[in-house]
Structure formats: C-alpha cells, structure tokens
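can u do me a favor
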C-alpha cells in the first residue's frame, strides 16, 4: 500500500509569510498539501517557467498537471482565491459584496504595505545579515520599527473596531494575511504591541489556531538555528 501524494503542492519556503499564508488557508479548510522547497534566490529553470515574477509561492494542482506550466498558479492571493473556489467550505472569504471587498483590501494592505515594511526594514536586516555572517543592521531595524511601523499598526488596530476579526465574526483571508505578515517580524525581533491593544489581542487569538501555529513553528525552528535569540527593538 502506498500513500497518494496530495493534489496541492506549494513551491517555496515556510520562512516566507506568503507560503505560510497559503498553508494556513489549506489547514483552515482541511485540504491536504505539501511544501516543496525552492531557493528563490537561485531557482531551478523549471521554477522560472512557472513563476513569471520569480517569487514564491507557486501552487501546483496535480489533479490538473503533474509538471510544466499547466496546473500552476503564482502569487499567494491568486492561490488562496483558487483554493477557495476548489474547496468552498469552510469559507475564508465573506459571501456578501462589501465584506468581501473589505477583506480583500485588508489582505492587500498586509501583503504589500505591512509585509514590505516589516520584511525589508526588520526581517531582512536581521536574518539576511546573520545568514551572511554579518551583524544585524540594528539601526535600520529600529528605525523601521519606530519610524514606519506605528502608522501601519495603528491602521490595523483601528480596522478591527470592536470585533474579534477584521470582517464579520469568523476568520477570513484578512486575518490570516495580517497575522502571517506581522509574525514575520516576530521571527527575528521582540515586539511590543501594547500600544495597539486590539491588534495585540487579535494576534494572540490567531496564534492559537493550528493553521497559524503549525507553519510558524516550522519557520521559527529554522530561524532559531541561525538566530538563537530575537532582537529587542526597544
């Protein structure tokens, strides 16, 4: 008896918040998947053919094609939307028009603004430096945390209002994306969210979910090998 591999393959690295975002959607929906590691800085030729922007993740649906371009989708937002259509329940996108649009905006805000600011300004100056045998760029990290991140965190805090989730009363793509992108910073730095209590409470709730805790734990174990201690940004 042999195990049948899952239809869905995520090409990328669990260190990527966008890979963890897709993994979280699969876990929330109880959809089997596997992660196939790809070095985005030196990708193989076959990956270049399926990732026009040379970014991770890329999804392959083996039920469509086991190799080549067919059956592949690039970009985490497109991938998550595809999985929602392929496996509608439980839904991670709101059914009604306005909540749906609102969730998509929060997803995009986190994907583009939060991820870029935290990734380029905090994660990379720490982990990339250590990976190259250099000291973390503390000036850049602390400058980003104190100068750029407060406005982003204030918006994400206010967008929660009085609710437990960004849209409606259940987890959506908005909650998953904000959490995976913000936790990217937490891989390398100790951060204090006490000035943003709604966001801090949201993060605490989300981190208890298996869809978040499992993939994050994998990435954390990898990061701790190079960085045994997180950096204090205070």
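np, heres the sequence
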């Amino acid at each position: 008896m042999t195990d049948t591999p899952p239809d869905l393959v995520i090409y990328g690295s669990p260190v990527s918040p966008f890979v963890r975002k897709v993994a979280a959607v699969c876990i929330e929906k109880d959809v089997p998947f596997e992660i196939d590691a790809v070095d985005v800085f030196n990708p193989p030729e076959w990956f270049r053919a399926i990732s026009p922007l040379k970014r991770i993740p890329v999804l392959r649906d083996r039920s469509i094609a086991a190799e080549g371009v067919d059956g592949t989708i690039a970009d985490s937002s497109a991938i998550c939307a595809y999985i929602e259509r392929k496996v509608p329940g439980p839904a991670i996108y709101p059914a009604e028009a306005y909540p749906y649009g609102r969730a998509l905006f929060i997803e995009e805000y986190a994907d583009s603004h939060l991820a870029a600011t935290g990734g380029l300004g905090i994660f990379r100056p720490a982990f990339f430096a250590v990976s190259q045998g250099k000291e973390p760029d503390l000036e850049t990290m602390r400058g980003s945390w104190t100068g750029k991140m407060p406005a982003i965190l204030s918006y994400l805090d206010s967008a929660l209002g009085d609710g437990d989730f960004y849209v409606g009363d259940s987890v959506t793509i908005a909650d998953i994306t904000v959490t995976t992108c913000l936790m990217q910073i937490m891989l390398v730095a100790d951060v204090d969210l006490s000035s943003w209590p709604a966001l801090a409470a949201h993060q605490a709730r989300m981190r208890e979910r298996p869809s978040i805790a499992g993939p994050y734990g994998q990435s954390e174990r990898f990061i701790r090998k190079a960085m045994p201690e997180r950096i204090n940004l205070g």
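The chain has a mean pLDDT of 95. hope that helps!!
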